[in-house]
Design brief:
binds iron/sulfur cluster, Transcription Regulator spoIIAA, Rossmann fold, 36% helix, alpha/beta, globular, 4 domains, six-stranded parallel β-sheet, five-stranded mixed beta barrel, binds 5'-deoxyadenosine
Length: 482
């Protein structure tokens, strides 16, 4: 995989946003601190950002790396660095545990290198209990901040350099969206674009509304401007990011108000952008208008990720999902009818409080009927502060595991049935990098998100090419350029 780093807005030139200007003055100040460190070490200091969780976090990490590179750090992949930043996730307990495990390792590095710094940010830090735990058991951590004040990273870095104590700055919420700060993109040819932040759905199992706050939409003007700039910079594929993209528009003024399908159509019009993805829609808000918009815009990727969570109407009600088994299946039917070549993927939770074997049978029934190309299956994880954590009828681990295995078998069956249907066809793919196992091959991604490996070299990275899909190997194909 290539790691082309691209800095947008690395300088103050043309910046109009007031808060961004304030942050640029901190960037200048922090640059001085990093220069001093460089003198002390006799080499350029290194920084490593480790990302957990979803695409939103990945995008936030690109913002962190943008600041770090602007102030003089060399961005590296190894945690054996002068500065380590963990951008955390808390959607399930195992995400929390993974971060705590890594902190144990970093502690030993701190002992060897007194100048070393460690910062923690992201969703897990928005939970009070998590920060208390860090304060108590991981005293060496230098900086903790949350999801709402990430744009102040440069300012927080200055505070960190100026103090020997742990700096903690967590906000409950924000209505602010700060544009125009540096960003260092991981890929030259594709990029995520935030269209909204936060979530208003309050599914009863989910921590996200508590750690990412209420839904806020970016204005269409700002989004299109970013997409145009990305295109000028060589980006050919964008992914519009939001926790619930099809309710895009909340909080926008009348003059700015457009719907998600309208926004999608506008993004497709940007010259140079050849493919548009989006993540994640909610079944309750997915309109026929959106499906029609996708159908008439060939630039929109033929991949719909539509989280099911459960196929039991009773469980869906307790999850506060606001759709039924029947309405979900109807939606799938509509997608299959209007977008016959689209891949359909989903998320499913097993072991939600009160779930019986019969409920799981309903979920399995939906999986069979919908014929998902792939499904991400999770065992329910109790998140403190969510309504479901207080439900009395929690499911035993053994029952959840048994049903999880039952579900997984069917998921694999339907995925297998779907795979292979493109064998022999020619598909347009975006080449993402050299194949990790065989350097004579490159790896490309099709519109429907499936990977294909085929002979090629580095010069193809970031290019769209037509590839004949010779053979299906389950989740991927091998092929040849036509
Ligand atoms: N337990 C298990 N899985 C969860 N998800 C969200 N919250 C939980 C939880 N408490 C899953 C959902 C969601 C995906 C990102 O994570 O399936 O779609
Ligand atoms: Fe994890 Fe949710 Fe935060 Fe993404 S928004 S990093 S999935 S908790």
């Amino acid at each position: 995989m290539s790691f082309d780093l691209n800095i947008l807005h690395g300088s103050k030139e043309g910046i109009t946003d007031e808060e961004s200007l304030v942050q640029f003055s901190y960037i200048e100040k922090a640059t001085g601190y990093v220069k001093n460190l460089e003198k002390e070490l006799g080499r350029r200091p290194t920084a490593c950002v480790v990302t957990f969780g979803c695409q939103m976090n990945a995008k936030d990490s690109e913002k962190l790396v943008g600041i770090l590179e602007t102030i003089g750090y060399e961005s590296v992949e190894s945690e054996d660095a002068d500065f380590v930043i963990y951008n955390t996730c808390t959607v399930r307990d195992n995400a929390d545990q993974r971060v705590l495990g890594r902190l144990g390792y970093v502690k030993s590095l701190h002992k060897k290198r007194p100048w070393m710094k460690t910062a923690l940010c992201g969703c897990m830090m928005q939970e009070k209990g998590a920060v208390e735990k860090i304060q108590k058991s991981y005293r060496f951590v230098n900086l903790i901040f949350g999801t709402h004040n990430l744009y102040k990273f440069a300012e927080l870095l200055c505070r960190m350099f100026e103090s020997d104590r742990m700096i903690i700055d967590i906000w409950d919420k924000t209505d602010r969206i700060v544009e125009q700060l540096p960003i260092s993109r991981k890929y030259k040819f594709k990029s995520g674009v935030n269209i909204m932040f936060g979530c208003n759905n309050f599914c009863t199992y989910c921590i996200v509304p508590y750690v990412r706050g209420r839904e806020r939409s970016r204005t269409p003007k700002d989004i299109i401007r970013e997409v145009e700039e990305l295109s000028k910079d060589g980006v050919k594929e964008v992914m519009l990011l939001g926790q619930n993209v099809d309710s895009y528009g909340i909080g926008l003024s009348d003059e700015d108000k457009i719907t998600f399908p309208e926004l999608l159509e506008e993004v497709c019009k940007v010259e140079g952008i050849e493919r548009v993805r989006f993540m994640t829609p909610h079944p309750k808000d997915m309109s026929e208008d959106l499906i029609d918009t996708i159908a008439r815009n060939p630039k929109v990727a033929r991949h719909i990720h539509l989280p099911l969570q459960s196929g039991s109407t009773e469980i869906l009600k307790r999850m506060n999902r606001r759709y039924t088994k029947e309405s979900y299946l109807k939606l799938v039917e509509l997608i299959r009818e209007k977008l016959p070549d689209a891949a359909l993927t989903t998320d499913i939770i097993i072991g939600f409080p009160g779930e019986t074997d019969k409920d799981v049978d309903e979920t399995i029934d939906v999986v069979r009927k919908a014929g998902f190309d792939n499904a991400f299956t999770f065992i329910y994880s109790k998140r403190t502060g969510t309504p479901a954590a207080g439900f009395e009828d929690q499911v035993s681990e053994a029952d959840a595991k048994r049903n999880f295995d039952r579900l997984l078998k069917v998921v694999q069956e339907t995925a297998r049935a779907q795979s292979g249907k493109l064998e022999g066809k020619t598909e347009r793919v975006l080449v993402e990098g050299i194949n990790e196992q065989d350097s004579n091959l490159v790896t490309g991604r099709m519109s429907n998100n499936t990977l294909v490996h085929f002979p090629g070299d580095e010069s193809l990275i970031g290019e769209f090419v037509d590839v004949k899909l010779d053979k299906c190997h389950g989740f991927y194909y091998t092929g040849s350029i036509v």
